[in-house]
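Chain X:
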Amino acid sequence: MTPFIAPHRALDPAFLDALEELANDSTGNWWRDVLQHPDLVLAVRRNSINAYHRGASIFRIGWKPGQVIPFTHAKYLVRPTQTYVALERGEFRFDARDVLQKTYLGMETLNEMCRAASRYAGAEKAGLHPMLAGNADVIDAEIALTRLSLPDDDGEEETGASDRRQDRIDAAIAILEKGVPTIRFYEAKHFTNPALRASGDNFPDVVRQITDYEKALEAYRAELSAGYIETARALLRFNDMRIRAFGESASRSIAPTIRQIAETGPAPVIDALPHLIIYGFDKAQRDDPAWGKHLAKLQAAIPGRVRAIGNPTRTTVFNR
């Protein structure tokens, strides 16, 4: 008997049915707005979904039997304001209604939440976002890989601490490798990130990070492969919801490989050798001899898996 492999991502059928009911509610709601928003990236987790904007989880959509519950961080509800706040007897005096979003008012509120999130997005997350939003072969984003443990799917932004228990690899795409559906992972670094550089004969810190990813991906190949079958099916279901709710013009481009994984198989192969993307530089920075030495060191440590792309757009592809 083939042993059961618990997928690292999966949504209960009842959860998907409840989302579909929300999508078909023509009176409007937050889920319909999420489906329509052109600058949100949906990532499937364990019975939850993250809607990302520039690396920020605008909504973490959870499921309790019979109820879909979206969560957001309070900082994304802060309105930009020029109002002065008085400090009287040790207390700031203000009306919370002027500072925080208190009521969800449709796409206007969602756009304000995205603008608020943009203020917290660093150059690294903001720079990669166009590629995540624009590529039809993206199957996952912000993939948490807990060191020496199972993948962790809480969907919160990484802290950046060098001693954190988990790393988050930025993107996963579905491609055909020698005719076989394959999931390939990408770590993205802004040109200014010090992890790309090291003095003398030392290797840059990103090399250790990539090595950690390799170990985790190798250890959990089976769970990841099973999970991406479920993820592909969910992404197609989300797109079907868009079409039924808003018409064919609302459909998103989904790569044929993702459709193949969802509909016919076989289960995707997990490429346990992550690639590194470096971006956020101009021609002068690219041609700087000092940078050239660091880049050569990275290419030697991660042969065939380093790509420097300048400034990405929605049409910049992950896989060449």
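Chain Y:
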Amino acid sequence: MLELTVGAGTSLSMLATLSEAYKVQQLQKNPLSAHQGLYQITLGNAQSLLLDDKIGNFMPNKEADFVVINMGGTELLERRMTHTKSLEEQLFVLMMMGDDRVIEQTVIAGVNRYKKSVTV
């Protein structure tokens, strides 16, 4: 039997975990901005794992582990994005509505490991 452990959440999707974190923070009257949330799932996670010297942002000499996100990855997301007026709003929409369908490409250690195929 394969056992799977998911750290700090109930999903392998950082966007899904971030959406849930936002909701919990709101209930505790401790707002989480989209910028703070995206920071937490990138450099913030790297810092908590003591790996921020290797991963977490695009600074020189760091490993290239990242995903390319399509901000209009679903019809609903694309429609909602047309009504945003700032980067903070766009990131909030992504944080609340993003899922695996927004991931266009995954790069691990500088090597492309996944690229969404184009469906016509």
